[in-house]
Amino acid sequence: MPARSYSADRSFERSRAHQARLPDGGAMDGDDGSSSPASYIRLVQHLIEKCICYKMNKEECMETLEKHAKIMPVITSTVWKELEKENREFFETYKKDRGEDSSHKTPSEQPAAAKSSDDD
């Protein structure tokens, strides 16, 4: 995995710090119970969108949000999957542009017709 620049790391920290408090003073991380789950999900969604701006895949995003925003990977993964469902065309194009399309599947994942036959 390519190393992220210092400025990218600082951007996540600034974003997290900027949005760490709700207008009523409650913490976004939910430690004090004053924030709503919907607010937390919106925060995670916003941070995933930042990851996408940095061309990260889901795994890189999960690692980054865990390290810099202390968001559990299962939360990031769940929100990412929901975003994929709601924005199927975008994510198909995004994965294709990143080189993650179906042409990168292992031979066992390829359809039988696509495999080369050396049985002759």
In words, what does this structure look like?
This protein has 120 residues and is mainly alpha-helical. Helix 2 (37-53) packs across helix 3 and helix 2 (37-53) packs across helix 4. Helix content is 55%, strand content 0%. It has one domain. The protein starts with 5 loop residues before the first helix and ends in a 23-residue tail after the last helix. Residues 1-7, 16-32 and 103-117 have low confidence and may be disordered.
| Secondary structure: number of strands | 0
How many H/I helical runs? 5
Strand portion: under 5%
**Count of the separate structural domains:** 1
Q: Look at the helices and sheets and give the structural class.
A: mainly alpha
Write down the secondary-structure element order.
Answer: HHHHH
Helix content: 55-70%
Major beta sheet, specifics? none
N- and C-termini, Cα separation: 41 Å
Describe the global form: globular
InterPro entries: CHP01589_pln (IPR006476)
Pfam families: A_thal_3526
